[in-house]
TrEMBL record:
InterPro entries in UniProt: 6-blade_b-propeller_TolB-like, AB_hydrolase_fold, Lasso_peptide_isopeptidase, Peptidase_S9_cat, WD40
Keyword Endoplasmic reticulum: no
This protein's UniProt keywords: Hydrolase, Protease, Serine protease, Signal
Gene Ontology BP, a term: proteolysis
Domain Peptidase S9 prolyl oligopeptidase catalytic, first and last residues per copy: 506-678
Source organism: Sphingobium indicum (strain DSM 16413 / CCM 7287 / MTCC 6362 / UT26 / NBRC 101211 / UT26S)
First and last residue of the signal peptide: 1-28
Source species taxonomy: Bacteria, Pseudomonadati, Pseudomonadota, Alphaproteobacteria, Sphingomonadales
UniProt cross-references to Pfam families, sorted A to Z: PD40 (PF07676), Peptidase_S9 (PF00326)
Name of the protein: Putative peptidase
MF-aspect GO terms: serine-type endopeptidase activity
Length: 705
């Protein structure tokens, strides 16, 4: 039977056909964006709708550390402002609101603004700007006098700068930019806002319209999988303007104001952390070698500029935040440490008085911290708990809950999650979270699904949020959520730039072999524990994770089913589908050109070359802007009579952003693995065609049941 919540998900998907086909004028019911406290309910199983409807603060993904904090602290340290966002499948949209609350336990947030559209991020990829589908980090900012809060909001396809009085609404747009506002900050006087938008894109669009008359020249502006026109240039600089918090005419800024905004948000530079004390002491992080992926070290100096050594192991590693306590106080810092940097530790250090002292260490992910008085206010999440706002006493290490945006999760019945650690064949540290069904007693072996790439914090849907880990577990699967080891090129100090690092990664498929060993060793570990059934193992992945899946299907016969969200690294992809700039870069990393027909090179890593020997049933659920990189693999597998099924989702990117699509992807991934690993099917008649297709695919297996 299908549960009530499962029926609701199916009904939403059925209703969503109309939403995707026609412009929707429906308004989402966002009345529960601020949930009302409710008594503890009888524990129940998790559903796809639960995972889809998580209320996020910031990005939610525990693997994305080192970003700007999504918590806006008032100048007096007594209030927090933050953006809440929740997906709403009924309208294929998002509920978004600006909330403010006091920094104390049991405080209730209040909404100062509600509305707007999802804001997806963009990046500089080989000289052009590409949308990614990942949400940008929304961080509201208080005016220095505490009277105003500024934030970004998107309406009718354009992102503008908005403000609201901290004591009351309504909020209003203070910019009317023809292109997206991408950055903002309060000016030094505290009475104006500096903002940045790429207004040069207006002239760029005009030039493209003229070029269209005589045809676009095919050059580095093209990324064919993304569309049939040149992409926007990353060299188009941000233009800076100044506006008052109440609106009015926008005026150009001085070039010196650019430092207030930080680096261009389309860049991918990993910047060092730094903090300056009120007495002039300064600390920043520096790489320990010239390798750009090497660990960091704390570099300390006095107010007079005299270097102060930091003794002890805690002074090196991966840091997630630095803060000075006031009035000649000590330095606080968060450090990722332990096996594969999977734990979070808080340290306290008074320079010149010995090594830093660890206050506590936890397997939880702590991020986005701000110093409020003598305490840290942070987001904290664990494998079975979505992010919550907490207050941490840096003296005793005590943590108080300030706000839980997802109280419904207290009524969900989760299975045990066990943290596993192992090394791959290169000696690199690998880790994984093993999620088990709620009532699992260890008496029988389970079918197991491997999710790939990163595993940190709340186990929602793995990297890309398409493989619902806890939902898989609730359906009777063990799930090994893999947290990848360092890149093979990251540990060599001679790799003094990213190009050298990538060349080493790709030499003789070194990175793929490292990941293959990581996966296979982890799978064997769970088999050896008596938990996983060796004949019923599935594997999934997006991006780097999908490359891991492809390599595993070529070089192993372990997997009985697979699913990927992107595809694939093949000669056509490397040399054509992602454009000439990508082809040139890949050749510089050692990949052969299109005309080489280098069969020996591609033999270990090409699914096309190995299509005849791949028997694992493969599900592809791809974005319309990426499916062209998969059609040659799909054709090769079909040509060889292999069980492969592919779906293409419209108006999507590398990270799929539409709630209805995510719900459909969750559902189909669950159905796929239930079908191939457990021999089960959903009796809902609306899925009859899906199972008829899969039944025909099953007949293509070399030994069908």
């Amino acid at each position: 039977m299908v549960s009530v919540m499962d029926r609701r998900s199916i009904a939403l998907l059925a209703a969503g056909v109309g939403l995707l086909a026609l412009p929707s004028t429906a308004t989402a019911d966002c009345s529960d964006l601020l949930p009302v406290p409710a008594p503890m309910m009888k524990r129940r199983a998790i559903t796809a709708q639960d995972l889809l409807g998580v209320r996020d603060i910031g990005r939610g993904d525990g693997a994305l550390l080192g970003n700007k904090s999504p918590l806006g602290l008032s100048p007096d340290g007594r209030q927090l402002a933050f953006i809440l966002i929740r997906a709403e499948a009924s309208t294929n949209s998002y509920c978004i609101g600006l909330a403010v609350m006091d920094v104390k336990p049991s405080a209730r947030p209040r909404l100062l603004d509600q509305g707007g559209e999802f804001i997806g991020g963009t990046g500089d990829y080989r000289g052009v700007i590409l949308p990614t589908g990942f949400p940008i980090l929304l961080a509201p900012s208080w005016s220095p006098d505490g009277r105003w809060i500024a934030f970004l909001r998107r309406d009718k396809g354009v992102t503008q700068l908005w403000t609201v009085r901290a004591d009351a609404g309504p909020a209003r747009a203070v910019t009317h930019s023809p292109v997206d506002v991408e950055q903002f900050a309060w000016g030094p006087d505290g009475r104006s806002l500096i903002y940045a938008s790429r207004t040069g894109q207006i002239a760029e669009r005009t030039a493209l319209a003229r070029e269209a008359v005589t045809g676009f020249r095919y050059d580095d502006r093209y990324v064919p999988m993304m569309g049939d026109k040149p992409m926007p240039l990353a060299t188009t600089a941000l233009s800076l303007f100044r506006v008052g918090p109440g609106g009015g005419e926008a005026r150009p800024c001085e070039e010196g104001d650019r430092a207030l905004l930080g680096p261009d948000p389309i860049g991918y530079a990993i910047l060092p952390l730094s903090a300056r004390a009120d007495d002039g002491r300064f600390v920043q992080t520096e790489h320990v070698t010239a390798n750009p992926a090497s660990p960091w070290a704390l570099a300390m100096s006095s107010a007079a500029g005299v270097k102060i050594p930091c003794p002890g192991e805690a002074c090196r590693g991966k840091f997630a935040g630095l803060w000075w306590m006031s009035h000649d106080g000590p330095l606080l810092f968060l450090r990722r440490e332990g096996w594969n940097d999977r734990s979070t530790a808080l340290y306290r250090w008074r320079p010149g008085s010995g090594p830093p002292r660890r206050i506590f260490v936890t397997s939880d992910v702590i991020s986005g911290c701000e110093l409020a008085g003598g305490d840290l206010v942070c987001l904290r999440q664990s494998a079975s708990v979505p992010p919550r706002i907490v207050r941490i006493d840096p003296g005793a290490g005590r943590t108080d809950l300030l706000y839980d945006p997802n109280p419904e999760y207290r009524s969900i019945r989760f299975g045990r999650v066990e943290r596993l650690e192992w090394r791959n064949d290169r000696g690199l540290e690998v880790a994984g979270d093993l999620a088990l069904p709620p009532d699992y007693d260890g008496r029988e072996r389970l079918p197991m699904i491997v999710t790939t790439y990163r595993s940190n914090g709340f186990l929602r849907g793995a990297t890309g949020n398409e493989y619902p880990i806890h939902l898989f577990a609730a359906k009777g699967f063990a799930v090994l959520s893999l947290d990848r080891p360092p890149h093979v090129g990251a540990i060599n100090p001679l790799n003094k730039d990213w190009q050298k690092l990538l060349v080493e990664n790709d030499r003789d498929w070194g990175e793929r072999r490292s990941m293959q060993s990581s996966v296979m060793t982890g799978v064997q570990r769970v088999i050896g524990m008596g938990i996983a059934d060796p004949d019923r193992i599935g594997i999934t992945g997006l991006s780097d994770g999908s490359s891991t899946v492809g390599f595993a299907l070529i070089n192993s016969r372990r997997f009985a089913a697979a699913a990927i969200s992107t595809c694939c690294l093949e000669p056509w992809t490397v040399n054509a589908t992602i454009g000439p700039a990508f082809a040139r870069k890949m050749r510089s990393q050692g990949f052969p050109p299109a005309t080489s027909d280098d069969r020996d090179y591609w033999e270990p890593g090409s699914m096309i070359r190995n299509a005849a020997s791949i028997d694992t049933p493969l599900l592809m659920q791809l974005a319309d802007r990426e499916y062209l990189t998969a059609i040659d693999v799909f054709a090769a597998l079909r040509e060889q009579g292999k069980p492969v099924d592919m779906y293409v989702f419209p108006d999507e990117y590398h990270n799929k952003w539409q709630p209805l699509h995510r719900l459909a992807i969750y559902e189909r991934n669950v159905d796929w693995f239930l079908y191939w690993l457990r021999g089960k099917r959903d009796p809902d008649p609306r899925k009859a065609e899906q199972y008829a297709i899969w039944d025909r695919l099953r007949l293509k297996q070399p030994f069908p049941p």
